[in-house]
Amino acid sequence: MMVRTLELEGFRNYRSFSADFAPGVNVIYGENAQGKTNLLEAVRYLSGAPSHRARSEGELIGFDVPSARICAQLESRGRDFKVEVQLTRGRRRRMTSNGVRLKTAGELSERLHTVLFCPEDLMLIRAGSAERRRFLDQSLCQLRPRYAAALAEYNRLHEHKRRILRDWEEKPSLLDLLPEFNDRMARCGAILIHYRAHFIRKLAQFAAPIHAEFSGEREKMTLSYETVKTVEDPLIPTREIYPRLLEHQESHRRAELESRTCLSGPHKDDLLVSIDGRSAKQFASQGQTRTAALSLKLAERELHQEDMGEWPVLLLDDVLSELDQRRRDFVLRRIRGGQVFITCCEEEALDGLGEGRTFHIRAGALA
Ligand code: ATP
Ligand code: MG
């Protein structure tokens, strides 16, 4: 998969931008606040993933313009696509592929998979479980449309159940709806757990050797799926997960009513990252946190490659400057193959990476 060309109009600080990218490494350099991250964000957006920075789509539109356009020529599975997204304030976005209207972000992600590593990803190790669920969800939504559909349905049901639990004392009749919601959430939840468990098992197989080499063979990274006691072995078939989720909900019924919060289900799950058997969240140093987060993303990239038979596009925002020379060399070796976008402040001499291009960005334009 690759982005051959990109045009931006009114996207963040880009008024009118157009570039042809290399199939290999594309280095995007420039001073602070010129638009390097914005460019990566535009590519990421084309893969159907929600922005890692914007809370609403309106934020992606230039401050003093009414609309934004992102247009790209993509190559995916041996075919070319012209994908276009139009964002207008106060309106629904409009997306097309080769002129045909697309309805969902999932349809975008069928054409372009991206793996993003950005400074905020340190939170993947450090923050609460929500960050790690977001990582699992975003990666799985790109790989498995069935997961994306189950997740959307689960989130909808969860929101309804949350409202029932919030309001039941004022409106006791709402409690009649709970069994139906619990059943449907358990059905969707079983699908989520099934996919997450297999994904994490595979991710762990890729992450272990990456992290070992990254840390100079000094550390051992392990990953496991914590299902907050709903199922002990999440690798069992979906039909066996479903009754266990129901049972768990049932045993938490009183606690949920009393706390007025939804305590049972895969929206509580976590991806446990350990280094040498200890929780990275609790014990990793700054450097270990960075290395662990990057190992996870490089493992995600290799997993996507194995799954699809094609490299996803890798977006590395501000990564190299923070690494020592040995780790830098490791990353640059490991990212060979596939298309990569790397941002940095100085024009980098990235030796040995094969054919690539460099782009100097200044104030939302090519310098
Ligand atoms: P750094 O090296 O500091 O990370 P950068 O080149 O990655 O810098 P960006 O994050 O891409 O910088 O942001 C470039 C500029 O775009 C910033 O000054 C930011 O305020 C501006 N910007 C962000 N959103 C919008 C928007 N919606 N409209 C116009 N400008 C915006
Ligand atoms: Mg930046």
From TrEMBL:
UniProt-listed InterPro entries: DNA-binding_RecF, DNA-binding_RecF_CS, P-loop_NTPase, RecF/RecN/SMC_N, RecF_2
Keyword S-adenosyl-L-methionine among record annotations: no
Sorted UniProt keywords: ATP-binding, Cytoplasm, DNA damage, DNA repair, DNA replication, DNA-binding, Nucleotide-binding, SOS response
Chain residues that bind ATP: G30, E31, N32, A33, Q34, G35, K36, T37
Gene3D superfamilies tied to this protein: P-loop containing nucleotide triphosphate hydrolases, RecF/RecN/SMC, N-terminal domain
Superkingdom: Bacteria
Annotated localization: Cytoplasm
Keyword ATP-binding belongs to the record: yes
Domain RecF/RecN/SMC N-terminal: 3-350
HAMAP family xrefs: RecF (MF_00365)
Function: The RecF protein is involved in DNA metabolism; it is required for DNA replication and normal SOS inducibility. RecF binds preferentially to single-stranded, linear DNA. It also seems to bind ATP.
Stated family: Belongs to the RecF family.
Protein known as: DNA replication and repair protein RecF
Native source organism of the sequence: Pseudoflavonifractor gallinarum
Gene: recF
